[in-house]
């Protein structure tokens, strides 16, 4: 399809969404305007329509309406975000920048924060969404406030805080096909005028496997998740100036194991050969304190501690009958501390600023082959043919200082400059051994201590012009980087990748704020794009390397929300085009030697569909105290690649998913009848190892949810 054809369809989709939104005024009472949507990622509470950032913000209610119960489904509600789930590993890309493959050494270019603290980048993001206040998806480099490896963007998850206004809560239960059962309970209790607690619990299980048939020499319960999470929040506000909050999250997430298929095999008829286990046990503690002086100046502190123990065993060659199993186990620990000095930001203060200091320490330990860490097996009762002789240990330290200053020249015009200095030190201790699979591996494959000390400066400059209170233009230039590192196999170093982004956008409110729109266009250049290829000098083992020359990614996004009384509509569209640099002398798995060593130039970024569209609508039908609210959501992603090689094994076909539901509510009681992927589209959600592992997307699911708010 030509670019002109794609653009025509994109413009048609946007025009159609706008036409539907505006036509609502013809048959609906205007009612109240849209509720104010805020962004907190820049350490302030700012209006989404006014802040010069391309972002999507979804409240907890909106997530529930759209059926977003975890990070995988978030891509169908936020433009320019794509997600491929590989069990404990998550490949996130925003505007084509993020992660091109699954590998413990490959940094993620999208950073996730939970309740103000960073989480493990690229891993362990499968905690269920429950009792969520809002999720912010920030598009484009976020190097000033987020730091290293936020070159693609950042996601901020905010869970609900304790409320001192009164006792409240929720109890909810759900049941669906595949014997799916879920339960959520939330209790909010103010213990005094200054002290409050909030407890939330979520359980989810699905007893039957997600597919048509499952055969093979396997053990465990693949495809049968059994998840438990609990959260405790304590809020103390002894004075109007001082506030403190403590959060504790505990999760025991037994996913059973990932069912996988392969190219040229039925997508939902699985032949699996592995001792399946996939379980993450984690704890996270977040402490926040803030003090506001009489002049409006604020001092804040955010502390975080997180630990995760994981075990993940799966069939390494998907549906292929031959036995090839990967087993892994490890412990991941992260500490973080941030201090901020935040000035007032209002009409009386033309100059406002945020100053910050940040520290993060991450420790990774992957067990040796004797303790099931990083092992490859060709027989269930045999020995690993590749494994760790001693535990793999990785230590990462990051120190950062940052400053962001904004100056209002007038009510209409302002400029903002942000800058961040980061020092990053990492070390790997690796000892990999080879064997024949018949006895313990003993042949040294790679042994060594690796260390990297890297410093960099990121930043962003933005101009904002607001000719009226309803229209805000902005233009920005930003720089961010993704850290470099080492290959576990072979030990070769790969360089950091640097992204420059040039963006212009417009945010507008129409019809007395009943319609809001957001438009943005961007152009990005990347140097040293990081990707994974088989090495011709290391027996075909995968290694990470950088592209020669410049890579470029460009596109635009359009989104809007409309509220006309009982009618609510939201729509979003993203378009992306890319051309990566050169990768000389890489091994193509799709060609025979000696013609399999080739060069790649101008490839497309993986997991980045050229067109992505989502549109949703709901309508409240009132019968006195009884309300019926039908809702429908449609999302579409064009075809995309799961690797830099364009071959049938790496192509993810286009997908169009339809979700719908009806809520029946009376006073504080509600019943939701819901369905996802109602057309039962069978599609590939992710590709790993160049097509040897295909991850099927969820088929049609439906059920009922009953809840009461008190």
Automatic annotation (TrEMBL):
The UniProt entry's GO CC annotations, sorted and at most eight, read: cell outer membrane
Q: Major place of localization?
A: membrane
Task: From the UniProt annotation, give the residues forming the signal peptide.
Answer: 1-28
Q: How does it sit in the membrane?
A: Multi-pass membrane protein
List the InterPro entries: Beta-barrel_TonB (IPR000531), Beta-barrel_TonB_sf (IPR036942), Plug_dom (IPR012910), TonB-dep_rcpt-like (IPR039426)
Record keywords: Transmembrane included? yes
Q: Which UniProt keywords apply?
A: Cell outer membrane, Ion transport, Iron, Iron transport, Membrane, Signal, TonB box, Transmembrane, Transmembrane beta strand, Transport
UniProt domain TonB-dependent receptor-like beta-barrel: residue ranges: 251-678
Q: Which residues form the TonB-dependent receptor plug domain?
A: 48-154
- Subcellular location as annotated: Cell outer membrane
Origin: domain of life: Bacteria
Gene Ontology biological-process entries: iron ion transport
The record's section on PANTHER family has: FERRICHROME IRON RECEPTOR-RELATED, TONB-DEPENDENT OUTER MEMBRANE RECEPTOR
The similarity annotation says:
Belongs to the TonB-dependent receptor family.
Can you say what this protein is called? TonB-dependent receptor
UniProt lineage: Bacteria, Pseudomonadati, Pseudomonadota, Alphaproteobacteria, Parvularculales
